[in-house]
Amino acid sequence: VQLQASGGGLVQPGGSLRLACAVSGEIFSISNMGWYRQAPGKQRELVAAITRGGVISYEDAVKGRFTISRDNAKNTVYLQMNSLKAEDTAVYYCNARTYVSTYWGQGTLVTVSS
Fold first, then answer.
1. I need a surface site. Which of 3, 13, 87, 94 has the fewest CB within 10 A?
2. Per-residue pLDDT tens for 5-29?
3. Do 33 and 20 form a contact (C-beta atoms < 8 A)?
């Protein structure tokens, strides 16, 4: 499984960004997909996840602001981020899990600053 993340950048507080994670390889083996983030000096944390069956979960800090979705035809998972705050600044990573392995994409930097 290969993951290619894109969509990061600099945005002002209150703004929006959409991250995309293109998935290739043994897609059929994936059971869960998620977005993690790691801010400077902090541990990597799960932001949002979606299971193969479509069950979605969010970290409390992003509920109501972030939306995870997927386009099966494009083999892509998205993270729509609205009402961004300075504390959302981090490197965001796409993650895929099978029953035996975990895969990571390269990070994409999101900077929220005026």
1. 87
2. 999 999 999 999 999 999 998 888 8
3. no
